[in-house]
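Anyone? Bumping this.
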Amino acid sequence: MAKGRITVLEQYCKSCGLCVAACPKKVLRISERTNAKGYRPVEQFTEGCIGCAMCAVSCPDAAIQVFKEQE
Amino acid sequence: MSEITVYERPKTWTPDVSSHYCPGCGHGIAHRLVCESIDELGIQNDTIGLAPVGCAAMIYDYIETDFCEAPHGRAPAVATGIKTVRPDKIVFTYQGDGDLASIGMGEIVHAANRGMNLTVIFINNAIYGMTGGQMAPTTLIGQKATTCPLGRDVAVSGYPIRVSEMLATLPAPGYITRVTLSQPKYIIKAKQAIKKAFQNQMEGKGFSLVEVLSTCPTNWGLRPVEAFQWLMDEMVPYYPLGTFKDFE
Amino acid sequence: MARVLMKGTEAIAEAAIQAGCKYFFGYPITPQNEIPEYMSARLPEVGGRYVQAESEVASINMLMGGGSTGYRVMTSSSSPGISLMSEGISYIAGCEIPAVIVNVMRAGPGLGGILPGQADYLQVTKGGGNGDYNMIVLAPSTLQECVDLTQAAFDLAQKYRNPVMVAADGFMGQMMEAVEVKPSPTRDQKPDTTWALGFMRERGGRKSLLHSLYLAPEPLEDHNQKLQKKYQAIRDAEQRCECYRMEDAEVLIAAYGTTARICRSAVNNLRNKGKKVGMIRPITLWPYPREAFKTIPGTVKRILVAEMNAGQMVDDVKVATGCAYPVSFYGRTGGISPSVREIEEQCEKLLSL
């Protein structure tokens, strides 16, 4: 399985949780931090991201960038 | 080993802004799909959008194309005016259910009936969002809203209007489809439909409308994930997903 | 082009085409139907397009869209249709979109009748739609003036990015007169690409946004102040008025449009009898020609306002003259115009006071 990673643009995240529900590998969670708007941005808390971008596809705020390792 | 970018913010999405939408609102997803479609089709400099009245009134703050606002419900008429003068441009309206299916029902029916070469993105979330959760023409039977606190009563308010099915009875419109945003697999289909609706216009094929079943977590009183589940359980049975016309 | 005999509505339509208007959005309503009919036949000949809207609500919004591209666009209607357009006119003004609207006024209120009237005066000069906005309103009194003011309307609309109305009445629309319709020197004026929609590439990728929505109070007030500054510039530069045989007049008639035509005959008849009567004829109903009213000679003792309504212009005359004269009113409604004789009688009555 390809290895992926995400970057959360925390300033845009509104902690709606749609990405958490969408992630097939269940590697996302709402963090304990707060951003400038007072929301707790999502974070990847464990290994296992496959770079499928289902989180980004679900995000209403375009707050997630997705990268994938390639041979 | 090298790394490729699988997903990044669309180029047409206005940089450095955070939307005014509530957490988990489907408008953000739909806006993003519009931006992605415009990016992929390479039409940013040639696209003119019409902003509605309602929650999406400030859509122009998030999408970097030319924009004009329209009075409530009148976006298809304003778009008709633009497209009449500039048939070389890609013109789209983005309208909610109050805007398109209530106050603007006349304008959408006649724009569709003229077969105007336009793209219409119609967001149906079964409620008036901006004004605070009042009953919409698409509010489901029995669904509670601030102006039908006991639930929509068909004896008083009639039945929820199935816009796509109704417009599909007209001979002129070419592409009419209903999609939703409730899970990634449906969002990917919604994206394909929205992109196709723009592509149809580029190819001069005629009127295209994508009805997007969406949520209003705030006014529905549900968490965003629960709202999409409610959409699948309650809205989809009444508003079936599918393509009603495709230039056949 | 030599002078030809034309019907008012058709003269207006041809004048628009000769002013470079290639896009027209119409909806049938009597007594202006010849304008959309003429446009639907004529525009394709000049490479333009006619669209029949589903309502006046739609036609004004099509006009808004067409105007947002910076090209010359027009719609026409009559009084009840203008009521339906009022929302759109407010948006067009708020978004600063150039657009020309022809109003062939009929008698009201409500559905009223299809005969001529001037009872839209307050609606078109004082608002009609919501908010602090103004529309330039031009009132022709001859068919040649219908032609000339229609062409001027396009220039004014583009100059100020504002809606402009040609407020004719049913007589102007339906009568025939010899007119000369010349190509306007500005007919090929290109859209202003600094703001017009559809020129994002020409702006180097900068989008243009036409809107009247400002949710925050300060930006909305700024927007209003900008509009008010523009309206003041229009008041300063664009007042038009005709003063007719005003020198040494003792009674001055204030009238516009068809009523002014009738009053002109009355003035001539009275002058032939040695009676000192003149006329002041606003051509711009907005901006109201207050400067011309300042030139009223000291001989004037009384002013008679004559209209085909119940006295809608009286207040403007009082304000423009600082209430310095007693102002009387004579008007007919229901689609009836004052007769020359009636105006003469009114003047003679005032002269005898």
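Late reply, but here is one note on the structure posted above: Residues 4-198+228-235 of chain C form a domain with the Rossmann fold fold (CATH 3.40.50.970).
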